[in-house]
Amino acid sequence: MEVKLLRTALFFVLFLALELVVYAADPKDKGFIDFINDTTNGLSFEQAIAIDNICDYSQCRTRSCALSVFNRTVFGQEIQYITNKFGTRGKDWEVIDEDEVETDTFVRDKYYDDLGIELFATSEKKVLHFDITGPINALDEKFGSFVINLNLE
Predict the structure, then answer these.
(1) Which among 67, 20, 49, 36 has a CA at the least distance from the CA of 113?
(2) Beta strands 93-95 and 110-119: pairing type?
């Protein structure tokens, strides 16, 4: 009798938990749909991969230092995303010559960094769009506007 009661209670708890998950994951929520379907693949501006603002400018006193930290951190996150998605750099893919890809684009109040890669297995070339608005805004807030030319030294 106790086992049956315990089983019924467990079933009831699992049923309630499932109802909460279904309620929390509204299928009309575009963010949820994009997350489930992995539509943030970077192949368009609408599907750009968001780069987090994890730049640490605490040791920087100059714009040059801040720009170096920005470039190293943002590029590092981009490379990490590509590595997670496509495999090992130099073995499975490589960055395309920067002259072939327009970078540092401003569209609809957002900043993007476009990075071209070539997949070795298929010889396919892709341009991935990364939304770098967060790191740009943080850099601007700390050191003034960098958006005119992100490659300033």
Answers:
(1) 49
(2) antiparallel
> What's the CA angle centered on 93, arms 45 and 122, to 5 degrees?
90
Half-sphere exposure of 101 (CA within 13 A, CB side): 19
For residues 104 and 118, give the distance between their C-alpha atoms in angstroms, rounded to a whole number.
19
> What element of type H or E holds 107?
strand 105-107
Q: Which pLDDT score, from 0 to 100, does residue 81 have?
A: 94
* C-beta separation of 99 from 105 below 8 A: no
Q: Which residue has the tokens 């401003």?
A: 106
Closest by Cα among 52, 41, 53 to 86 = 41
Alpha helices in 2-149 (DSSP H): 2-24, 30-37, 63-86, 133-143
Residues 6+ apart with CB under 8 A from 119: 86, 92, 93, 125, 126
Query: Global pTM?
Result: 0.67
Q: Residue 143: what pLDDT?
A: 79
- Burial of 111-147, coded b for 16+ CB within 10 Å and e otherwise, reads bbbbbbbeeeeeeeebbbbbbbbbbbebbeeebeebe
The reported pLDDT for the residue numbered 20 is 47
